[in-house]
Amino acid sequence: MEKDEITLLARDGNEEPFKVTFTKVEDKLIITCTCSEGIHGEFCEHKLRLASNDIMMLQHPGQNSAMLSAHVWVIDAPISDKLIHLLQLQGEDEPDEEAIEKAQAEIGKAMREGTV
Predict the structure, then answer these.
(1) CA 69, chain centre distance (Å)
(2) Local structure of 8: helix, strand or coil
């Protein structure tokens, strides 16, 4: 079983950066983070923003190409549809907080298990 990993450092204010790891095993993509939510397998902004190719979340600009590679994995994974849906919900004029929380929980589970 082949396993590939990409680890990116995510900004977090004045604190040490968090490690966001994208692990590709066959047809699964697992995304983890070392922040307090991420270590419990929950949804976190670090995973969301790096999975969405948000360059402003990167701690080190030298990781741009690694982030692009991780983003390609995300695009090719079933989780991409759930991420797009969440971003659309968040962008609405009057966001439905309940729907956003539900989408975040689903994405957290999908990132933890590598399934959708």
Answers:
(1) 13
(2) strand
